[in-house]
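B., you asked whether I could sanity-check this one before it goes into the benchmark set. Here's the sequence:
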Amino acid sequence: MGDASVLGTMNGAWILDKTRGSPSMRGYLECLGKGESEHDTINIIECDASTFRIKKMSRVTDLTLDLKLGEEFQQELPGDRVKTVLATSDDPGKSIRILSRMPTMNGVATVVDTKTLKREGNILVLVQTLVIKNEQTGAENTTVRYFVPHEGEIGPAAVTAKGTGVEVSV
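And here's what the prediction gave me:
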């Protein structure tokens, strides 16, 4: 991976690079029973040695998630359902692993969301690997997406985004 000291950190705004990897979330969303459409996906990340904050803006989501590294978080969902989230990092600011278990329309899904900062030439790239498994059906999907630094204005959330403006904290 190279010298970690020249990488910088994940802190900042990142926009999905639709030209490579698996930018489509179709397989992931099918495991959850949701649809997909074209819309910019932007993640705004703030992290340090003990916390990870991400604001996710896409066609499907507009929410902010605040996590304390190493502490499981439980979020109550409608219908007496509970989602659990655990964020860990061996190298805070450079990589994060978020393990989630959540009820879906098709059973219970386990999601491992790994974000790793990499340098490609003179540009930083945030590589996201999402592995989702529907525990009831056995369906599994791996999606790899690449985010590049985003500068400039960030537009409003998509009208189709759920959780518009919602903040979830540990």
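One thing to flag: The first strand starts at residue 12 and ends at 16. Otherwise nothing jumped out at me.
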